[in-house]
């Protein structure tokens, strides 16, 4: 789009009076001083993409020495006299709806147009220009980068948790207009639009914008004292989003590299007291994203992406945690608030599980060997730690599940079973999902060890423990899917739905930063053993919708993994791998209620938040069920 000068962001009154507006909310000082109601400010998004057609044409005419068009809408300047081939000109006859075609020459038409008598035509005979005649040339229209930024704002910012709900809410957002942000937004938008349209030229242009933001950030980091931390961190995180958006075989590892870079930048500010007030929370989020991306990367290099114990050794799976990771965790433990301390306690458990998962994939394990038994013991210990962590959470960290009394209120494709979670804030919601995917995979590893290593697992994972693992997976998978509206807003959801779903306060800073990890978590929940078929189908539809709305290539790949699991092309351990004893199997109804029968160790049927609990709860608006804390008593 041609640049026509920076648009004033002042209120209408100050712009009319041509005075400086201080843009104070809700009323500017100038209007308050003269005791006049302030008319408010223009929509920031409309300013970014405003139509400057008339100004462009005026400037062009001034530069070319062409006078302004007359009232007739025709050029009033003289035209060169040239001989041209006849051109058919359509004119309307006096009959209603009738037209006639007269053949004349372009020169004759020009002469007729330039005739002085045309200036004194009656008003009724003056012809208005059609849209085709007033349409701007292509070079004056919105550029691909402008379209990409608009796409990014509409699909990666507006409406997501922790982000503005409307374009008007973006007004005055400082980071939105920085050079780094505009380049990376254009890069992500172009890559996404390329995925959806198949236009490879857009992907090439996306790489150019990506290269520009790399150069800009590298240049700004040479003098760390002048770094705008908010802008740089946002740009680096969205660079990671770019890596999972553009098409490539393994998008997660490059994204993880950017996340590590963001963590290194933030950690360099925190010890000096120069970081943001919630810097420790931000650093913890980056650490969680790193370990989730590490676990997610295993599936891209594996022929069996839905298995925890592959059929053959996969030497390319790297479970190495960055050397600085322990330093970052130490910083967080020293600086984290008491309210966020549970997240600092969880990150170490998750990191140890990812290292164990990499060990299982990269080394050969023999049934009956001590090393194989050691792997199973470590998985059991991690699961016990995750269970204990879950049982401790209450108060601020409690999770409440709600549903409305009208079963048709929410679109079925957007909200699972009409249920949704309410957390204190979105940061806590993200941390809970990290606990869920880790525990799902830990129990999946235990179930797969039963079929792969029967001798090693027999004394460690008896039938009762297998049933507990299946019930735990079913519950946590469902909780993961029920939590989706807290993190991602389906396009079918409206403002009326938002009044229920927006009960969770903001707290995670950047909405789109949580989407790649959420897609991985949905895939884990959908492909875990024992998950009901309808939950898998719902998860697949959500991931496919995310791809259609964002163009994020990672969503397309993960949807294929889920589809393969549903088709049985990549089987994982299932309920059939549990002991063949009739008492060891769980019916789908019992699993949805999280265990209706008593197991051999004496823990009885109840649980929290299961679908089977709602039969006796109809008619309440909304229905609330505590699903956090106290669950360890069942298991």
Write a brief caption for the model.
With 635 residues, the protein is mainly alpha-helical.
Describe the fold and architecture.
51% of the residues lie in helices and 4% in strands. The protein is globular, with a radius of gyration of 31 Å. It starts with 11 loop residues before the first helix and ends in a 9-residue tail after the last strand. It contains 24 helices and five strands. By secondary structure, the protein is mainly α. α12 (279-300) runs parallel beside α14. The relative contact order is 0.08. Residues 90-119, 569-595 have a biased composition (Low complexity).
Shape: globular
User: What is the ordering of alpha helices and beta strands?
Assistant: HHHHEEHHHHHHHHHHHEEHHHHHHHHHE
Biggest sheet details: 3 strands, antiparallel
Number of strands: 5
Continuous helix count: 24
Give the DSSP E fraction (strand runs of 2 or more residues).
under 5%
Give the helix/strand class.
Answer: mainly alpha
Descriptive key words:
mainly alpha, three-stranded antiparallel beta sheet, 635 residues, 5 strands
List the helices and strands and how they pair.
Layout: H1 12-17, H2 29-33, H3 44-48, H4 53-64, E1 86-92, E2 99-105, H5 106-114, H6 131-134, H7 144-157, H8 179-197, H9 200-220, H10 229-245, H11 252-269, H12 279-300, H13 325-335, H14 341-362, H15 370-392, E3 400-403, E4 419-422, H16 426-452, H17 454-457, H18 463-482, H19 484-487, H20 495-501, H21 515-527, H22 533-550, H23 553-567, H24 588-592, E5 623-626
Helix pairs in contact: 7-8, 8-9, 8-10, 10-11, 11-12, 12-13, 12-14, 14-15, 14-16, 15-16, 16-18, 16-21, 18-21, 21-22, 21-23, 22-23
């Amino acid at each position: 789009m041609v640049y026509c000068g920076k648009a004033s962001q002042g209120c209408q009154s100050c712009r009319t009076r041509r005075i400086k507006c201080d843009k104070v909310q809700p009323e500017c000082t100038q209007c308050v001083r003269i005791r006049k109601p302030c008319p408010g400010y223009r929509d920031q998004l409309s300013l970014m993409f405003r139509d400057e057609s008339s100004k462009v044409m005026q400037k062009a005419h001034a530069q070319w020495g062409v006078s302004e068009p007359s009232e007739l809408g025709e050029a009033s300047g003289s035209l060169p006299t040239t001989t041209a081939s006849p051109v058919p000109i359509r004119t309307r006859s006096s009959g209603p709806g009738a037209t006639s075609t007269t053949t004349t020459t372009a020169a004759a038409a020009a002469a007729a147009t330039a005739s002085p008598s045309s200036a004194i035509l009656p008003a009724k005979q003056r012809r208005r220009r059609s849209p085709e005649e007033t349409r701007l040339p292509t070079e004056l229209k919105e550029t691909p980068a402008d379209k990409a930024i608009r796409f990014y704002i509409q699909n990666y910012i507006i409406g997501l948790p922790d982000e503005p709900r409307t374009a008007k809410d973006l007004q005055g957002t400082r980071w939105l207009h920085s050079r780094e942000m505009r380049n990376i937004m254009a890069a992500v938008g172009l890559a996404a639009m390329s995925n959806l349209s198949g236009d490879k030229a857009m992907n090439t242009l996306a790489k150019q914008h990506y290269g520009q933001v790399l150069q800009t950030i590298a240049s700004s980091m040479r003098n760390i004292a002048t770094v705008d931390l908010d802008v740089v961190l946002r740009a680096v995180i969205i660079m990671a989003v770019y890596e999972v958006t553009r098409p490539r075989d393994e998008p997660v590892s490059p994204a993880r590299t950017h996340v590590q870079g963001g963590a290194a930048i933030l950690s360099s500010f925190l010890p000096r007291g120069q970081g943001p007030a919630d810097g420790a929370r931000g650093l913890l989020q980056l650490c969680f994203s790193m370990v989730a991306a590490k676990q997610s990367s295993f599936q891209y290099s594996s022929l069996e992406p839905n298995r925890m114990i592959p059929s053959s050794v996969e030497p390319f799976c790297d479970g190495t945690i960055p050397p600085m990771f322990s330093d970052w965790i130490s910083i967080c433990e020293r600086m984290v608030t008491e309210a966020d301390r549970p997240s600092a306690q969880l990150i170490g458990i998750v990191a140890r599980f990812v290292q164990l998962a990499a060990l299982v994939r990269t080394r050969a394990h023999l049934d009956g060997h001590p090393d194989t038994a050691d792997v199973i013991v470590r998985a059991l210990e991690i699961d016990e730690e995750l269970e204990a962590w879950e049982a401790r959470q209450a108060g601020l960290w409690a999770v409440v599940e709600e549903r409305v009394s009208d079963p048709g209120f929410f679109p079925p494709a957007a909200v699972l079973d009409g249920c949704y979670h309410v957390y204190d804030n979105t940061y806590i919601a993200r941390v809970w999902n990290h606990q869920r995917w880790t525990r799902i995979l830990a129990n999946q590893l235990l179930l797969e060890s039963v079929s792969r290593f029967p001798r090693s697992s027999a004394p460690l994972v008896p039938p009762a423990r297998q049933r507990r693992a299946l019930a735990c997976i079913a519950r946590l998978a469902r909780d993961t899917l029920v939590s989706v509206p807290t993190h991602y807003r389906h396009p079918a959801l409206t403002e009326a739905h938002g009044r229920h779903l927006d009960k969770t306060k903001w707290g995670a800073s950047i909405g789109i930063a949580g989407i790649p990890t959420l897609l991985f978590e949905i895939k884990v929940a959908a492909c875990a053993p024992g998950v009901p078929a309808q939950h898998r189908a719902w998860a697949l539809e959500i991931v496919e919708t995310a791809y259609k709305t964002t163009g994020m290539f990672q969503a397309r790949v993960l949807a294929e993994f889920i589809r393969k699991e549903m088709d049985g092309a990549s089987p994982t351990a299932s309920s059939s791998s549990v002991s063949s004893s009739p008492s060891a199997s769980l019916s789908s109804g019992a699993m949805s209620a999280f265990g209706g029968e008593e197991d051999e160790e004496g823990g009885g049927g109840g649980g929290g938040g299961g679908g089977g609990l709602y039969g006796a709860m109809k008619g309440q608006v909304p229905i609330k069920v505590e699903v956090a804390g106290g669950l360890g008593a069942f298991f």
